[in-house]
Design brief:
Blueprint (H helix, E strand, L loop, with lengths): L1 H8 L7 H11 L12 H6 L8 H12 L5
Helix pairs in contact: 1-2
């Protein structure tokens, strides 16, 4: 999923699911994430409770095109 890809893609080795969730929710502004998404399946394979909006998804991936800047 986006949250796991972004946090691990930035070199955050050994990040917990809590840290990955908080990074995605707060730093990447993925407001559709809910507390139930703080687990391995939602964060790694994208089985989020409510999913992400198209705007959240495309904004999250702009980090790669912008060399790490959101």
């Amino acid at each position: 999923g986006v949250a796991a890809s972004i946090s691990f893609g930035l070199g955050v080795d050994g990040a917990t699911f809590e840290e990955s969730y908080n990074f995605a929710k707060n730093m990447m502004r993925l407001d559709s994430l809910v507390p139930q998404d703080k687990d391995i399946a939602p964060l790694s394979v994208g089985s989020l409770t409510y999913g992400l909006t198209l705007q959240e998804l495309t904004a999250a991936y702009t980090v790669y095109a912008n060399q790490g800047s959101y």
